[in-house]
Specification:
heterodimer, A: alpha/beta, Rossmann fold, 4-stranded antiparallel sheet, 10 strands, B: alpha/beta, 2 domains, 4-stranded mixed sheet, 67% helix
Chain lengths: 269, 367
């Protein structure tokens, strides 16, 4: 701000230009996910069909849709694992087509199905991913100690992951996914097969993480979970059919729950 | 680089976590060498034989004595007429029957030429041919020694088995065993290690991290490379210590060759894991596609020269054949690089092609 004030006085003609640029930078920073007309085709099949949306920093954004609706394909593209057929997207201001390497250091990923090595211990898993993300030893040690304490898992720290109950395992997987402080975390059906109580605890973790400014994109089958999101979109056949916060969506479609909204949208031709 | 080291550590931990596999892998060379060393022998000791001596002469008895006093044959039974030959094969389990005609001694003295008939059990072809050549040598020598005046043949052919005078089969199976172990440890284990991660989905977890795929693969396969090198050294040492395998060539060249073949096996393993999606398919591909050909088409157990032409041509595409060829030349003949450059170059070419192919396929494979 100091710099801008000076520039106003010295180069009044640049004033407008400078502030415009600043707005652009700010908006980039404010939206950690910007997706524009993203499309992915596999042969004749269009898995993701011209979708656009933006997610603000610190927002919990839900992705709802049946299997095969294109959720996973979208996430793969946003993670830089799959190139889009057309359209663009940016994570934290980095373009997914041109700067996939930069994206990889800024994101975290977790899925219920596979997220940790079961034959390694809690510490070994965290060491592995911490080291890959380039955390130095002391920082890694510090964060590991924090997480283990926070999750109340000190007695399990040298236990192999396969001996942990599913609920604990999945909280640990989430903690490992955000070990390197990513600005965006992708959660691909993180809670399938977990009991309701553990799911509640898991969502508390998600809220805490979002409060620190980490953006969360979560796909889910559970409609009650969709209610916890700040905003959500419903995907059908590769397209985003509706997008908004849960309360708005319910009003708009005159439904009591997101579940009803989902069914109305899916059944509408 | 950090990712590479982390994955290397992780892979070692996987291996140590499952010590049964590690123990099995390290025991395998020992078992293979002992098995092949003591069971599949090309040289034959104490083959049982029977004699039908119609001439009942001094000569024939001396010859029979010479045969049975050699290590290769032991006299099982003496039979009296043709009808008993079949029985000797069936109930006495003899491998070979020597038949001396009635006028054996007279012919030998008068015409300087006599016949001996050898009836050989050819149900095992390898044994049969080996026995015939042993018998031939003993007979020649026996007649030469005892009857200097007698010239069996106008041209006296003397065979010297160069490089392997005792016809030791260790010369054949040690290089073959190394090839087998490389295929088992390197190709099979790397392809399983990689396809296992694909199958479980953890591969995507690694692909999402900033480390690149090549580093991930390298970190994963290096522990297996180390294990297979240990196994190779084990086989060579066992071969030298227990089976008197000679080491006439340059040790550095030998190590270089083993290292090259290990790279070939490794590239194959990575390629298989990229082309297949599950552990089981990867394993089957390794066993049927590479283990069996290594066993059968590499001049290890069965001579390639005796195979039909299509198989002979096919054998050229399996790296193990070239490796075994070069290994034998180095260890037994003491060949230097000038003699083994061809197989080494072919192996190098194969390795480069396989590595290139697997890196290319890997980069195109979706995660």
């Amino acid at each position: 701000m100091f710099f801008i004030k000076i520039s106003i006085s010295v180069f009044p003609s640049h004033n407008f230009f400078v502030s415009l640029q600043l707005v652009e930078i700010l908006s980039k920073v404010e939206h950690s996910i910007v997706v524009q007309n993203l499309t992915r085709k596999f042969g004749d099949f269009t898995a993701v069909d011209n979708i656009s949306f933006q997610v603000k920093r610190g927002e919990i954004f839900g992705f709802l849709g049946a299997n095969g609706a294109g959720k996973t394909t979208t996430i793969k593209m946003l993670c830089g694992l799959l190139m889009p057929t057309s359209g663009t997207a940016a994570i934290d201001g980095y373009d997914i087509v041109n700067e996939p390497k930069m994206i990889k250091t800024h994101i975290g990923y977790m899925s219920q199905k596979f997220s940790l090595y079961e034959d390694l211990t809690i510490k070994e898993n965290m060491e592995l991913f911490g080291t890959i993300y380039g955390l130095n030893r002391s920082l890694l040690k510090h964060r590991m100690a924090n997480i283990i304490e926070k999750l109340n898992m000190y007695e399990y720290r040298n236990t192999r992951v396969c001996h942990l109950p599913l609920g604990r395992r999945q909280k640990l997987a989430f903690a490992t996914a955000i070990l390197h402080n990513p600005s965006v975390v992708f959660l691909d059906e993180p809670t399938s097969g977990v009991d309701p109580l553990a799911r509640r605890e898991f969502w508390n973790m998600i809220y805490e993480t979002a409060e620190t400014g980490t953006t969360i994109l979560v796909t889910t089958h559970y409609m009650d979970e969709a209610e916890y999101c700040n905003r959500l979109c419903i995907m059908v056949n590769g397209q985003i059919r509706t997008i908004g916060n849960p309360i708005e969506l319910k009003e708009e479609h005159q439904a009591d729950t997101i579940n009803d909204v989902f069914h109305k949208i899916v059944n509408r031709k | 680089m950090k990712g590479f080291k982390a994955i290397l550590v992780k892979e070692c931990r996987h291996i140590i976590r499952d010590p049964k596999v590690l123990v099995a892998v390290l025991l395998m060379p020992v078992v293979l060498v002992l098995l092949f060393g003591y069971t599949i022998k090309n040289e034959i000791n104490n083959a049982r034989f029977a004699v039908l001596d119609n001439s009942k002469s001094v000569f024939s008895r001396q010859i029979i004595n010479d045969i049975s006093s050699s290590n290769y044959f032991s006299l099982k039974t003496i039979i009296n007429d043709n009808s008993q030959i079949e029985k000797a094969f069936q109930s006495d389990n003899v491998r070979i029957v020597f038949v001396f005609p009635e006028n054996f001694e007279e012919n030998l003295k008068r015409n300087q030429k006599a016949d001996i008939q050898m009836i050989v059990d050819a149900s095992d072809l390898n044994v049969a041919t080996t026995l015939v050549s042993y018998a031939q040598q003993i007979l020649d020598k026996s007649i030469q020694d005892r009857h200097v005046a007698v010239q069996m043949q106008p041209i006296d052919v003397r065979v010297k088995m160069q490089y392997n005078p005792q016809l030791e089969s260790a010369y054949m199976f040690i290089p073959g065993n190394i090839a087998l172990i490389m295929v088992l440890v390197t190709t099979l284990m790397t392809s399983i290690a990689i396809s296992k991660e694909r199958e479980r989905g953890t591969w995507r977890l690694l692909a999402i991290t900033p480390s690149n795929q090549l580093m991930i693969v390298l970190g994963k396969i290096i522990p297996y490379m180390c294990i297979s090198l240990i196994c190779t050294v084990l086989v060579i040492v066992l071969g030298i210590v227990i089976f008197d395998m000679p080491m006439r060539g340059n040790v550095a060249l030998l190590i270089l060759l083993c290292f090259l073949f290990m790279l070939t096996a490794c590239a194959l393993g990575v390629l298989i894991s990229v082309l297949t999606n599950t552990q089981q398919v990867a394993m089957l591909t390794c066993m049927l596609g590479f283990f069996l050909p290594t066993l059968l088409l590499s001049d290890f157990l069965f001579p390639i020269e005796n195979m039909p032409v299509p198989l002979q041509i096919l054998s050229h595409i399996f790296p193990a054949k070239w490796f075994i060829l070069a290994m034998r030349d180095i260890m037994v003949k003491g060949a230097g690089f000038e003699l083994v450059w061809l197989p080494v170059t072919i192996l190098l070419g194969m390795t480069i092609v396989l590595l290139g192919l697997s890196v290319w396929k890997l980069s195109k494979k979706s995660v």
